[in-house]
Structures are given as structure tokens and as C-alpha cells.
Design a protein that fits this description.
By secondary structure, the protein is of the alpha/beta class. 34% of the residues lie in helices and 21% in strands. α3 (27-40) runs parallel beside α11 (211-218).
Length: 239
């Protein structure tokens, strides 16, 4: 039986990608996230929650023992053609409790937690902590509600254009939620990638903003949070 959450993320969602254009293999985003993972995870077993079409798993599968889950049957059907990693379809609230204790060295949750009601997030984080080995790491990317572009774009800010974003929380609140089962070891940002930003400037010139992604990738997540669409948090399971 398809849950309400599953029904929101079928082919029509990825076809429109919440008003940003068709979901695709974004090379800049993939390079950034691959470098970020490499900074904090030298090796091991990695689970990606919300793996979508499996592009990041494909980039990581030669260095890590990877697996993925996603709520969308459509996304998982595509992922099975993209990555060799095993992928599974289902709601995170149902799939995580089935995973054994200490099954993974790391969990990736990029662009996922904001889709969950705030009241469910502590339970999901506790399940993630349970399936991690002691000292295992969780890498999170969530919309940065204090970023410069929210001030510039106001109601047209990228995170507000996606109606499935139900938990657009402050950075302080995210750190508070993660600080219960985990110890936060690093925070950072990604880039200014939701062009255009300046109405009076031609679109082609505004592609210069994408150079911030290059800097973010080169610094492996150390780009200033205030200039980043997404907040990056790396947390470690307490022993």
C-alpha cells in the first residue's frame, strides 16, 4: 500500500523537481558531495537515505560498500539502472527499524530531513544512531534558512518552492536535534547554486555564482554557511 509520503515523490515530482526543472545528474553537486564524503569517511559501509536516482551511490561505490533507500518507487527503478549498489524502496520510518544494530560506518541524509515532520525527526535520528557503529558518522544537508539567498529571493527562495519541505528549521534547531544521539563534529555549506539571484543582471552572467560550488568542492564543505543554500552538518555517534 502506497503511503501519503510515497505518493508525493513519484515521477511527476522528479519531472518538475519542485519547480526547478527535471531532476538530473548535477555534476557540480555530485563532485561536492563526493569530496565531502571523502573528507570524513576514509572507508566502510555507507547507507544513503533518499538516494533518488542513485547518482551519488554510483560515484561512491568503487570506494565504499554502498546501499541506498528511497521512498519513491520511480526513483528506485531508475537507481537500479544507474548504480550497482543495492537499493530498496520504502518509507524511512519503516525501513530503518529493519536494519541491524551497527550495520553501517556512515549514513548520508542529503536533502532528506526537511521532508519529514519535525516530530518524526528525533525518532529517525535515533534509528540512524542505532544502525551506526560506535563512532560512525552521519552527514546531513538541509536548507539553510539563514542564507543570503533567502534574503535576496524571499518567497522565491529555492527551499520555499518545494511544497514537500515541511521542516524548514533554523540551523540552531538542527544542531539541537542532532546533538541528542550524536556529537556534531563539523558544520559548513555548499554554494550559491539557485541562479538567478539579481533581476537586473543577465542570466548568463549570473552563472558566475556557480563558481562558489567549485570553491565549496575544493574546500570540501568549508564554504561559508551564510553564502550557502544548504547547511552541512557532520555528526558522530556517541560511543
Amino acid at each position: 500500500m502506497t503511503t501519503e509520503r510515497e505518493s508525493k515523490f513519484e515521477e511527476s515530482y522528479f519531472g518538475d523537481y519542485a519547480g526547478r526543472g527535471t531532476y538530473r545528474d548535477d555534476r557540480l553537486k555530485r563532485a561536492f558531495r563526493t569530496r565531502l564524503v571523502g573528507r570524513f569517511l576514509p572507508r566502510g559501509r555507507v547507507l544513503e537515505i533518499g538516494c533518488a536516482y542513485g547518482y551519488l551511490l554510483r560515484a561512491l561505490e568503487d570506494r565504499f560498500e554502498c546501499a541506498g533507500i528511497d521512498v519513491s518507487e520511480h526513483a528506485i527503478s531508475v537507481a537500479r539502472t544507474v548504480t550497482k549498489a543495492p537499493v530498496e524502496c520504502g518509507d524511512v520510518m519503516e525501513l530503518l527499524p529493519r536494519k541491524p544494530d551497527g550495520a553501517f560506518d556512515a549514513v548520508l541524509a542529503f536533502d532528506i530531513l526537511e521532508h519529514l515532520p519535525e516530530g518524526q525527526i528525533p525518532g529517525v535520528l535515533n534509528q540512524i544512531a542505532r544502525i551506526l557503529l560506535p563512532g560512525g558518522r552521519l552527514l546531513v544537508s538541509v536548507p539553510n534558512t539563514r542564507c543570503l539567498s533567502r534574503k535576496l529571493k524571499k518567497e522565491q527562495w529555492t527551499a520555499l518552492r518545494d511544497p514537500t519541505h515541511v521542516s524548514l528549521l533554523s540551523p540552531e534547531r538542527w544542531l539541537e536535534l542532532l546533538g541528542d544521539p550524536f556529537t556534531v563534529v563539523a558544520t559548513g555549506g555548499d554554494a550559491l547554486w539557485d541562479i538567478p539571484y539579481l533581476p537586473a543582471v543577465p542570466g548568463q552572467l549570473q552563472r558566475a555564482f556557480l563558481l562558489t560550488y567549485v570553491l565549496a568542492t575544493a574546500t570540501r564543505g568549508r564554504f561559508p554557511r551564510s553564502l550557502s543554500e544548504n547547511l552541512i552538518i557532520v555528526a558522530e555517534k556517541r560511543s
